[in-house]
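Title: Comparing notes on inverse folding

I've been comparing how different people in this forum approach sequence design from structure. To keep things fair, I'm posting one structure and asking everyone to reply with a full sequence. Here's the target:
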């Protein structure tokens, strides 16, 4: 069994990216808008800031109060869309309930949409047109490529159909010629699908949902889940300890997919810059 080491791959990829960015001789601009005080968001934003500083971006963290009016958020996005020093804009999820998250995401110009979540970029992805792709799905592809794990022709089973991970990943894997099955909370007999997976991806948010009997021998297991436990440790959606000796490759939590997600945000900011210029 090989552990897919997201931290190592991220560090190598960020060093490569740093060199590419140096050649541009320009400072890239990334803005993260955070609304409210969600504790997990704080951690994610600080990871993004660290990555941005490492790549010498101009990084702006706009913090807005929980009760901010939607119009105000839309106005801020309009201003950023028109600001030529800004390459990438993202609004940290989750947003407070009174806001229309879809409307806010869609206000970001598609060429500055470094989270790849606008309807336009999702549509382009579904049509296999080169575009800004959501960071976690793209990070999974790059992690598999780094370890020379073929995707083409493989049975890829994804558990979880969120707009952030599962759905875009299903499109992306299809574009990479996998045979894709997308499972979710209404799937009957989940185990019948997961045990048929050459590559199984869990993006659910239920600690250790995927057990040893749910995986095929020598398969590849990608654990997207990040669940904070009562003792403050992080746990994935996969029962790592009991599964690891049955499979050929597996990602740890932490240190797996999450690392790649941050790395891809750097790549998307660079790509957004190239798209715009
Ligand atoms: P979400 O909460 O939006 O969606 C969860 C999905 O899981 C839904 O489609 C639901 O149908 C499905 N589901 C729920 N219970 C199920 C069950 N018992 N069996 C099968 N399917 C079930 O999730 P999300 O935003 O995609 O996040 C999922 C997990 O991934 C969370 O733990 C989140 O913290 C983590 N996450 C990690 C990264 C990363 O970079 N590693 C990025 C995004 C999300």
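Reply #1:
Here's my take.
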């Amino acid at each position: 069994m090989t552990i897919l080491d997201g931290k190592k791959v991220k560090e190598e990829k960020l060093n490569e990216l740093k060199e590419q960015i140096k050649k541009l001789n320009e400072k890239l601009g990334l803005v993260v808008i955070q609304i409210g005080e969600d504790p997990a968001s704080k951690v994610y934003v600080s990871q993004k800031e660290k990555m941005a500083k490492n790549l010498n971006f101009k990084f702006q963290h706009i913090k807005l109060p929980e009760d901010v009016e939607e119009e105000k958020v839309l106005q801020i996005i309009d201003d950023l869309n028109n600001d030529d020093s800004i390459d990438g804009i993202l609004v940290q999820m989750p947003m407070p309930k009174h806001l229309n998250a879809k409307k806010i995401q869609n206000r970001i110009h598609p060429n500055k949409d470094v989270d790849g979540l606008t309807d336009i970029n999702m549509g382009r992805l579904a049509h296999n047109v080169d575009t800004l792709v959501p960071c976690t799905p793209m990070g999974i592809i790059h992690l598999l490529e780094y370890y020379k794990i073929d995707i083409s022709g493989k049975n890829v089973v994804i558990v979880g159909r969120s707009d952030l991970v599962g759905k875009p990943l299903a499109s992306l894997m299809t574009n990479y010629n996998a045979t894709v099955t997308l499972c979710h909370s209404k799937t009957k007999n989940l185990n019948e699908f997961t045990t048929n997976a050459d590559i199984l991806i869990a993006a659910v948010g239920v600690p250790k949902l995927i057990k040893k009997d749910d995986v095929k021998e020598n398969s590849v297991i990608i654990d997207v889940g990040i669940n904070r436990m009562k003792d403050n440790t992080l746990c994935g959606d996969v029962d790592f300890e009991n599964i690891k000796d049955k499979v050929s490759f597996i990602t740890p939590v932490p240190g797996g997919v999450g690392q790649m997600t941050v790395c891809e945000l750097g790549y998307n900011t660079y790509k957004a810059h190239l798209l715009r210029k």
